[in-house]
Input
Amino acid sequence: MDMDNESISYSAPGKIILFGEHAVVYGYAAIAIAVELRAKCTIVPSLSKNPSILTPDLFPNKSFTINKDTSLPSSLRAIEFVIREMLPSKKRTQYPRIEITSEIPPSAGLGSSAAVAVSLISSLHAFLNINSNLDEINRMAFEAEKIIHGSPSGIDNTISTFGGGIYYENEVKRKILIDDKSCFFVIVNSLIPRNTKDVVEKVKQRRDKNKQEIDQIYEEIQSISTQGEMSLKKGDHERIGTLMSENQNLLEKLGVGHPELTKIIRLVDKHDALGRKLTGAGEGGCIVALFDDYQKTQQAINTLKEKGFQAFITNISSEGVRNETEHV
Ligand code: PMV
Output
């Protein structure tokens, strides 16, 4: 890039998983949709001697310098990994001053860590003048996800990089066009935080003890994802809703429900949701509910807010990572 201190900026979206979380970790199919809530990374080339990082959402007014003697707080481990991988210690004339902000609630099953990684990697590629492609950004973001989540399926980084809707199985994706003009996906945040790595580990332990039973659940989830793809292509909202609720029953059997999620489910059922399920790892985080009537959607959102939950209609993001650099 030009050495004129022009800043570089990329954003990347969060996601909901419509079908197949947990099963996807074991190579079964899942379907994810990118949502228009974004993490954003801005890099300003600086004359200081090391890269620095600001994350005002997590550490207001604090800047961390990255050099060989320091390590960052554990919540910034994946960010540190990416920066060290991509900026091997050689002398440079300029170093990046990196700022990351995010609209995506963390620890809520909305893919915030993947979106942060994708926006950071894209910005660093531009800073380093690397002509990167989306596959390379996705590959590196998967490595960053492994730092946080242990053995992630790769669905979060893939949907954040490519956007839209995807059917994902065994690290292979295909795009699905999602029609959200005549239906409404509502995200309801229980505000119960949870750690994906811990929940995935608990499910693994259950499977280690009772492989046959858990794999049977995964087979049923696989069938739901396959039928879900067909229903999404047809725009059959009733069927999509039914499949979401069936998927929720299986997630509860897997043991990743939570009383607050059950409370939300009861509320959206009372408002005639076509279907609803948790999204992401579970044990807290968010419910996604499907409606086909705008008025009922708004009434449900009002009731949920009155009960103290965050609730909003999802805007699907057809775009994945996006260049936000403003050229003056
Ligand atoms: O809770 P999230 O947004 O990190 O999603 C986790 C989804 C899982 O299927 C449980 C794990 C994975 O790596 O796919």
Notes: The longest strand covers residues 30-46.
